[in-house]
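Full entry
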Amino acid sequence: MNRKQRIMLIRILISAAMVIALSFIPVTGLPRFVLYMLSYLIVGYDILRKAIKGIIRGQVFDECFLMATATVGAIALAIYERSGDYTEAVAVMLFYQIGELFQSYAVGKSRKNITELMDIRPDYANVEVNGTLEKVDPDDVGIGTIIIVQPGEKVPIDGVVIEGDSSLNTSALTGESLPREIHQGDEIISGSINMTGLLKVRTTKEFGDSTVSKILDLVENASSRKSKSEDFISKFARIYTPAVCLSALALAILPPVVSMIMGGSAGWEVWIYRALTFLVISCPCALVISIPLSFFAGIGGASNAGILIKGSNYLETLSKTKIVVFDKTGTLTQGVFEVNAIHHGTIDDERIIEYAALAESASSHPISRSLQKAYGKAIDRSRVSHIEEISGNGVKAIVDGHEIACGNDKLMHLLGIEPIMCHSIGTIIHVAIDGIYSGHIVISDVVKPHSAEAIQSLRKIGIRKAVMLTGDAKKVAESVAEKLGIDTVYSELLPADKVDKVEELIASKSDDEKLVFVGDGINDAPVLGRADIGIAMGAMGSDAAIEAADVVLMDDDPLKIPKAIKISQKCLRIVYENIVFAIGVKLICLALGALGIANMWLAIFADVGVMIIAVLNAIRALYVKSL
């Protein structure tokens, strides 16, 4: 509980104690009025001040205005009737402030998850200067600087480990409790905590472009993107509040006037009391507070689970997902390729691998890296020239004076070379030297351990179709799809083809169904942007992932995909529960208040009680571990 909340609690306790004491102490007349007013002002002076400011600014119809009008009216009515009973007026303000305190505590609790995430922001970076370590502002560290990360310190900036081995605590980033082992040559991202060994890191980004800055910016801006439900509540409150104020005014004036015209007693006190009760009941606090709080709690709970959702509008859209489209490499498979075999070689295997690795040396694609790994020697780029990448097909280059073509069967046909087809499952890299077919290399990827389980989980939560898009060969794609239980697979696609397929799938679905595309966020940015929701997974080091995707998973576990959807479904379920409950109770109590059946105490329940129940329900969106 913060200082402001503690002060409010003290005010509530003092005011409550005074009201209780006055019910036992035989004080009458002016002293009784003064003591009650003192109790009233202690607990409600800020509400009165806000109401007056709202009237001055022309922003009249809000909950402060309703509370001020109802309570001041109840006091005026008690003075007029000379009853000396000001308890109801003070109680209304007292319980309203209890509700506000409760709501403030709930928001603070849901904000705690976001605050914990903000703790990943580093305070300094260690830079070695003349043999001593100096703590400098991370913003002042340039690309290529050698920084030292000692045990227990946060990694301040993205980089590559050039010396040392350690374990990293990435729980603040990924939601996973298991440490991650890191060694020399490994990439390291900011925001994680070095647990054991000392690390020397060469920075690869400036602090403003590093992972931690991107994450913090994403989370800080999440609340600015409102959902349709939040927009509805805002518009509803703008129409609803003046409508009930006018209704209360009509309730206070019209029945007495009509009664007087008909020759009866006006009964002004009765109808004014009903109108004041009507005002207290009508306060839209439960909706105005609980709906944004539900989304805020949902985003906070998701971030704590390693799922960053850019706004409540994306959270709402995600809950309506019916079609999930996957990229294959790095999404459903590990993206760790290994050379398994070389077939039909017209020269020795080592030379085929050597030529292929040198020809692919300018590429950072996983296939290229696997060839370079299989070659096992340092790449001498002076041996390579005239590298020409042919999108979606492969590469041509001059290596040691020979023209090397390295790619799929489409590339061979494009060059007028007849490839020998392979019956092995895997990615087939055909190699031609000086226009003569020289054999092919079989490279295999490995399916992630949780991919099949993730597909099954998606079906259990109502996903009707799972689709896989890949640039890989048809045989390989179909083999992976069969293992995982994918409904439809499209293979041998160029990046533009993936966008076309997503367009077709979007056109084939109904308007209330949403399509999610899941990719690694590097090569799939166009598709991530075109889908109803783009999810980038395991790519927190990628600027493209954070920029293009609507949801970013902090690790590469496919099980986070159904979890993200379940979080959104739970959050929206809570939102709808609160809307139905709050409006339903309000309408019933408003009718009872207008008929004189409901008194001010029931009005307090209809306002504060409903708000507390709705806020309690909203807090449930924070708890996502069991999903």
Remarks:
- DSSP finds 20 helices and 22 strands in the chain.
- The chain has four domains: 3-115+224-295+570-622, 142-205, 310-333+447-554, 338-444.
- The CA atoms of residues 56 and 458 lie 54 Å apart.
